[in-house]
Design brief:
The chain has 628 residues and is of the alpha+beta class. It is built from 20 helices and 22 strands. The chain is globular, with a radius of gyration of 32 Å. Keywords: DNA damage, DNA repair. InterPro entries: DNA_mismatch_repair_CS (IPR014762), DNA_mismatch_repair_MutL (IPR020667), DNA_mismatch_S5_2-like (IPR013507), HATPase_C_sf (IPR036890), MutL/Mlh/PMS (IPR002099), MutL/Mlh/Pms-like (IPR038973), MutL_C (IPR014790), MutL_C_dimsub (IPR042120).
C-alpha cells in the first residue's frame, strides 16, 4: 500500500533560494548586506565596484578583521552568525547583521567569490560558490580584510532576473543604500565606482561634512544642529532649515543605534515640529540618530531590518518632536537678531542721541516704506472708487467676446443665462463683475465652497467634483503631449540652475524624453545639476525648481507603473498632483469652459484612477432625504 505522507524536507539549495526572496530583492540588497558586514568587521575603508548597476558584478572590498579558514566556510551556512549566541542576545543587538542569512541567500542566487584574511594569518582563504554549490576552497595570498565578488545575480533564477528594472532604476536603489550606510558611518571612508566611473569618494569625516560631501556644498548653509538627551533616548543630528524644504522626498533619514530605519510615526513627529514653518506639500531635510538601549526596541521583524518597534513609541515621538521643534525655534530666533544694530543701547556713547535709549522694533522692508496719511488715503478712495467699476455699465458685445476669449471660450458657445453676466477685459473689473452681477435665482450652475459645481438637470441635481474634473482634463492633456511629444514650452528669461541628488539624477536620465515631451527644456550642468531653460506653458505659476521637483516626486512614486506604460502612468500622477491647484473660485465663463472640456473628454464620469467625478441626485433621492 503506497505511503500517504506528502510532507518532505526541502533541500538546502531550495531553502536558500526561498530565503533569498526576502533578503536579496535586487542588486541594492546585496550592496547593503555586504557593506553592513564590512562595518560589523570594523572596517575603516570600504570600496564598492559595480558593473551594469550590479547585474553582472558587485564587488565590496574592506580592510576589516577578516575571517579564519573555518569561519570563511561557515559564513555561507544558513543561520551561521558571530553576532548572537542565545535568545537573550536578540535584545542586546548593536551590530548591523545578526540573522546569519545574507551570505547564504546571496550564494544561492549568484556566483560568489570571497577572499579573506585575518591580520594574524600569513595566508588567506579563497572560496567560490555557484548557486549554493561550493566549487573551490583553497589558501591564497591576499590583503587583510574581505573581498566579495558577486557575479551574474539571479543567473539560476531567470524569473527573478526578468523582474529587475533598467540599469538606471537599479542604480538609483544602489545609491540609496550606499548613501544610508555612508551617512550612518561618517568615520568610515567609502568609495563607489560604476562601470569604471567614480561616483563617490568619501573620506573619514564628521557627520556634517559627510552630509555636504554627499549632497553638495549648498547644504552647508541649510543645516541646523539638533540634539536632545534624556534618560530614555538621545537624539542628535541635523535638520534642514525651513526655507530649504523641497517638493521631493528621499532626504529624510532615521538611524536607530546607527541602523537606518523607516518609521512613519517618527516621521510624523518631525513634520509636526515643522508645522507652520514650511509650505504644505514640502518635505524638510533631516538626518537624525536615535541612541537607545537595545532592550527597548525589537528589530527582528523583517529580514531587511529596516522596520523597528519601540516599547514606548509615544515617548519617542514626543522627544523627537521636542528636539526638532527646539532646533527650528533656535534657528528662527537667531535669524531675527540684527547684528548690524548697536545692541549696547543701555550705554550709548556721548555722541549718540538720547532716543537710542529706547530699543527699536525691527520692521520688515515692506513695512518701512513711507505711507500716506489715513485721511488723505480716505479722500483719494472716495474720489476714485468709482473707477474700479468703469465699463460695467453698457457692456457691449466686444467686451464680452474679449472676456470670453481670455477664459478659453467664445461668446457664441456660452448659454443664454451667461449673456447676462457683466464682464470686461481687465482682471480687476472681471472680479468686480463677479460680485455685482450675481447669478439669477434660476441660474443653472452654482459653485459650492470652491470645490463642487451644482447644476440643475431634468431629473434632479448634478454634483461635479471640481478637482476631479480638472484631474480628468489634465490627464488627457498630458497624455496627448507625451504620445505626440508636442508639449508647449515657455522659455525662461533667466535660466534657473537646480541641484538634484544622485538618485534623482538617475531618474532624470531614465525619463528624459518624457520630461521634455511635457514642455520642460533643460540641459545638464555638472555632475548633479540641471539648467532649466523652459517650463510647460500651461502649468500653474510657481517657481521652476518647485515644479521640476514635484515632477521628480511623481516619477518616483509611480515608477513601478512607468515600465509598463510611461505616458499613462506619468499622465495620471501629474494630473492628480496639479489638479489640487485648481480648487479655486470660478466665474460663470470658467465653469462653463470646465464643463465643456470635461464632457468632451473620453470619460467625464470618472477620474483616470476610477474615482467618480459626477454624482446625480434625482428628485426621488432628494425626497427620500427629507422623509428620513
Amino acid at each position: 500500500m503506497p505511503s500517504s505522507d506528502i510532507i518532505q524536507l526541502l533541500p538546502d539549495s531550495i531553502a536558500n533560494q526561498i530565503a533569498a526572496g526576502e533578503v536579496v530583492q535586487r542588486p541594492a540588497s546585496v550592496v547593503k548586506e555586504l557593506m553592513e558586514n564590512a562595518i560589523d568587521a570594523k572596517a575603516t575603508q570600504v570600496q564598492v565596484i559595480l558593473r551594469e548597476a550590479g547585474r553582472t558584478l558587485i564587488q565590496v572590498i574592506d580592510n576589516g578583521t577578516g575571517m579564519s579558514e573555518t569561519d570563511a566556510r561557515m559564513s555561507f551556512e544558513r543561520h551561521a552568525t558571530s553576532k548572537i549566541r542565545q535568545s537573550e542576545d536578540l535584545f542586546r543587538i548593536r551590530t548591523m547583521g545578526f540573522r546569519g542569512e545574507a551570505l547564504a541567500s546571496i550564494a544561492a542566487v549568484a556566483q560568489v567569490e570571497m577572499r579573506t584574511r585575518q591580520e594574524s594569518d600569513e595566508l588567506g582563504t579563497l572560496i567560490r560558490i555557484d548557486g549554493s554549490e561550493i566549487k573551490a576552497q583553497e589558501a591564497i595570498a591576499c590583503p587583510k580584510g574581505t573581498n566579495f565578488s558577486i557575479r551574474n545575480l539571479f543567473f539560476n533564477v531567470p524569473a527573478r532576473r526578468n523582474f529587475l528594472k533598467s540599469n538606471s532604476v537599479e542604480m538609483r536603489h544602489v545609491l540609496d543604500e550606499f548613501q544610508r550606510v555612508a551617512l550612518a558611518n561618517p568615520e568610515v571612508a567609502f568609495t563607489l565606482h560604476h562601470n569604471d566611473t567614480e561616483v563617490f569618494n568619501l573620506q573619514s569625516v564628521k557627520l556634517v561634512k559627510r552630509i555636504i560631501d554627499i549632497y553638495g556644498k549648498s547644504y552647508r548653509e541649510q543645516l541646523a544642529y539638533c540634539q536632545e538627551d534624556t534618560s530614555y533616548i538621545n537624539v542628535r543630528g541635523y535638520i534642514g532649515k525651513p526655507e530649504f524644504a523641497r517638493k521631493t522626498r528621499g532626504e529624510q533619514f532615521f538611524f536607530v543605534n546607527d541602523r537606518f530605519i523607516k518609521h512613519n510615526y517618527m516621521h510624523h513627529a518631525v513634520i509636526s515640529a515643522f508645522d507652520g514653518t514650511i509650505p504644505e506639500g514640502s518635505h524638510p531635510f533631516y538626518v537624525l540618530f536615535i541612541d537607545i538601549d537595545p532592550s527597548h526596541i525589537d528589530i527582528n521583524i523583517h529580514p531587511t531590518k529596516t522596520e523597528i518597534k519601540f516599547d514606548d513609541e509615544r515617548s519617542v515621538y514626543a522627544i523627537i518632536m521636542a528636539a526638532v521643534k527646539k532646533a527650528v525655534g533656535v534657528y528662527n530666533l537667531s535669524q531675527s537678531i540684527d547684528f548690524e544694530e548697536n545692541i549696547n543701547f543701555l550705554n550709548p556713547s556721548p555722541s549718540e542721541p538720547n532716543n537710542n535709549l529706547i530699543p527699536r522694533t525691527v520692521m520688515p522692508d515692506w513695512a518701512a516704506q513711507p505711507r500716506k496719511s489715513e485721511s488723505s488715503a480716505s479722500k483719494s478712495n472716495l474720489t476714485n472708487w468709482s473707477k474700479l467699476f468703469e465699463g460695467l455699465q453698457n457692456t457691449d458685445d466686444r467686451h464680452r467676446e474679449l472676456a470670453a476669449f481670455e477664459m478659453g471660450t467664445t461668446a457664441a458657445s456660452r448659454p443664454v443665462y451667461q449673456e447676462q453676466a457683466k464682464t470686461v477685459a481687465s482682471k480687476v473689473n472681471r472680479m468686480a463683475s463677479e460680485v455685482i452681477a450675481a447669478p439669477e435665482a434660476d441660474a443653472l450652475l452654482f459653485q459650492l465652497h470652491n470645490r463642487y459645481i451644482l447644476s440643475q438637470v431634468k431629473d434632479g441635481i448634478m454634483l461635479i467634483d471640481q478637482k476631479s474634473a480638472y484631474e480628468r482634463i489634465l490627464y488627457e492633456r498630458y497624455r496627448k503631449m507625451l504620445i505626440n511629444r508636442n508639449g508647449a514650452c515657455q522659455q525662461l528669461l533667466f535660466p534657473k540652475t537646480i541641484r538634484l541628488t544622485h538618485s534623482d539624477m538617475q531618474l532624470v536620465h531614465e525619463t528624459k524624453k518624457e520630461i521634455r515631451s511635457l514642455g520642460f527644456e533643460f540641459d545638464e550642468f555638472g555632475a548633479n545639476e540641471l539648467i532649466i531653460r523652459g517650463i510647460p506653458a500651461d502649468l500653474p505659476e510657481e517657481s521652476e525648481q518647485d515644479l521640476f521637483e514635484e515632477l521628480i516626486e511623481q516619477l518616483k512614486q509611480s515608477y513601478s507603473d512607468l515600465k509598463l506604460n510611461k505616458p499613462e502612468s506619468l499622465s495620471r500622477s501629474l494630473a492628480k498632483r496639479f489638479s489640487v491647484r485648481y480648487a479655486v473660485k470660478l466665474s460663470y465663463v470658467e465653469i462653463h469652459t470646465l464643463l465643456n472640456q470635461l464632457f468632451s473628454s473620453s470619460d467625464p464620469n470618472r477620474t483616470p484612477g476610477g474615482e467618480p467625478i459626477i454624482v446625480l441626485l434625482t428628485m426621488d433621492k432628494l425626497a427620500n432625504i427629507f422623509r428620513g
